[in-house]
Design goal:
Blueprint: H1 2-14, E1 17-19, E2 27-33, H2 40-51, E3 55-60, H3 69-74, E4 77-80, H4 87-97, E5 102-106, H5 121-129, E6 133-139, E7 144-151, H6 157-168, H7 185-194, H8 199-207
Parallel strand pairs: 1-7, 2-5, 2-6, 3-4, 3-5
Antiparallel strand pairs: 6-7
Helix pairs in contact: 1-2, 4-5
């Protein structure tokens, strides 16, 4: 109750309104976008408090050492060892398999700066864990944010991303110039293959962007 009241007070003072309903599913990946400012986090947390969604987030394992480790875990942090075999995706898929209820929030752009591609981790985690993706958003232009549709990924990356692009079209970040194209690097790989490019040529073309 305290968190809900805190979230409502924060949004009321900021002059924001919320749209959408709390998802009924117990396990899903929730995208936080656009992500262009440090202000995104307090707004997203305020909305999570109002919706009573116990969001979790990933952080480098070194963040969870003393003296702040217990605090970060308490506010939803999940320690990730980036150099572990299998990587972040496999660790989070395993985490989902061991949790009956888990809402993982992922800022798909991966950074507050302009990027040419979204990070595809959210997609592969959701596919690997066989959970849907919830589209949440902040539109600083209209001072509106909240919960959008729930999408079950099909494995057809282009088609799945078309749905995501359609939803986020026109949503304005705190820094509009920092909003990048909503596209995964894998989509370009798919296009190269469709155009008849050889696998090694695909790697060569993308190597300069990795």
């Amino acid at each position: 109750m305290f968190k809900r009241s805190l979230g409502e007070a924060f949004l009321r003072v900021a002059g924001w309104k919320m749209v959408g309903e709390r998802p009924a599913e117990p396990r899903y990946v929730i995208i936080a976008a656009p992500h262009t400012s440090n202000w995104d986090m307090p707004f997203m947390l305020a909305m999570a408090f109002v919706y009573d969604i116990p969001v979790r987030w990933m952080g480098k394992h070194t963040l969870f050492k003393r003296p702040f480790g217990a605090f970060f875990r308490r506010i939803g942090g999940i320690p990730i060892v980036r150099h572990r075999a299998g990587g972040v995706v496999e660790q989070m898929v395993d985490y989902f398999e061991n949790e009956e209820s888990l809402v993982l929030m992922v800022p798909a752009e991966g950074t507050r700066s302009h990027v040419d591609y979204w990070k595809s981790g959210f997609y592969h985690i959701a596919r690997g864990a066989d959970v849907p993706v919830c589209l949440s958003y902040l539109d600083f232009g209209k001072k509106v944010g909240g919960i959008g549709p729930m999408i079950s990924l099909t494995g057809d990356i282009g088609a799945d991303m078309d749905k995501i692009r359609a939803f986020y079209d026109g949503k304005q970040g705190f820094n509009p110039d920092a909003v990048g194209e909503i596209r995964l690097r894998e989509e370009d790989v798919e296009q190269y293959v469709e155009d008849g490019a050889e696998a090694l040529d695909v790697v060569d073309r993308l190597a300069g962007n990795l």
